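User: I'll paste a sequence; please echo it back and then give the predicted structure.

Assistant: Echoing your sequence first, then the prediction.
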Amino acid sequence: MTKDNASRIEPTETLDTSGMLCPLPVYKAGLALKGLKQGDVLRIICTDPGSLADIPAFAHQRGDVLLKVDDQGTTQTFLIEKGSGS
């Protein structure tokens, strides 16, 4: 998927974990993804800089697809497509 295509994706659900520190963003993302169907897209908004390492590793470990990472310095946004293994 190219960056242009990722920017046009409309997420199925948005999870705002602003103000939460590790491990809460990953934990909350796991709960949110549990309620989605394969192919659905979750947008996660974080303010914990550790999420730049944690969320991609979490998605990979679960078998989900990390579609986009947007680091704005104080805020990080991720798009994750729920995979078949999760």
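The chain has one domain: 3-81. Residues 51-62 form the longest helix (12 residues).
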